[in-house]
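Example (one chain per record):
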Amino acid sequence: MKSLFRACARVAVQGLFVALAGVAAAQSDYPARPVRVVVPFAPGSGVDLVARSFAQRLGEQMKSAFIVENRDGAGGTLGAITVSKANADGYTLLFTASPPYAVGPAVQGSSAYDPNSDFLPISKVAATSMVLIANKDAPFKSLAELATYSKANPGKLNYATTGIGTPSHLSVEVIKAKLGLDIEPVHYKSAGQAMTDTIGGQVPLYMPSYPAAQAYLKAGKVKGLAIGSPARAAGAPDVPTLAEALKQPGLEIRVWYGLLAPKGTPNAVVERLASEVAKAAAAPEVVALINRLGAEPLLVGPAEFSTQIREEVTSSRQLVRKLGIAEK
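Predicted structure:
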């Protein structure tokens, strides 16, 4: 009986070693097939362009295709939901921005995914600022004039957003609370339509990311009221920072761009991806694109990125409760 037990134990141990060897071999060969990079925003958005730049570099470095797939919808959470349910093998990744990723589930009353526990952060790669823009014919050209107009015309102003809890929504609600503005959101299904209607005058205000607004500001199709960056943007030097406009030093409204994987993805794969992303982040063409978009290259690795997300989830949920924002 003892000899039989020892024989069975040897077989079990040998089987475990074979299994572990197979996993290790699979991870060392990663990626052995194309990798899907899900972007939960429309093609042409700032986060999409940065994602495609990194996907191209990662493909070249790792000798395998990294294919960007746009899954726009649900305020930027649809793509995250998709990735959270994908196989945790490193072949489906999420390239997203905050706060749709961090705040969306809480604001929308959705338990489809938990931003703290359903993903493994790989790398934060950039940060960008939100900018409050107005239709070029709007009867105000500064935050002070907007406040005056809002008080003189209660209930007559609205602003475009890309959904409840998205940066374009929360950012304006912060300003609205600080200035006591009487303005209401109009929620659009896409950033493209929100921008089109702002330019066309169907809505007078919108607060997209600076990369999304940069070309329209330069062309004079919209006017900038304030930007959430620590300093004025080089491409829009006439647009004051929020800190300047509201006389609140240190006030910033920014979002990050980053890469994440589903929970359960092997640590070796996450570490390999983080290492390759760091190499890609240093590529001149990637840095040039991020700068050209008006964003800031900002590389943060898995451990620190994870900590920052947890802190952001906590602070953002506190903001949501304070502002009383919830999906009806």
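Caption: The radius of gyration is 23 Å.
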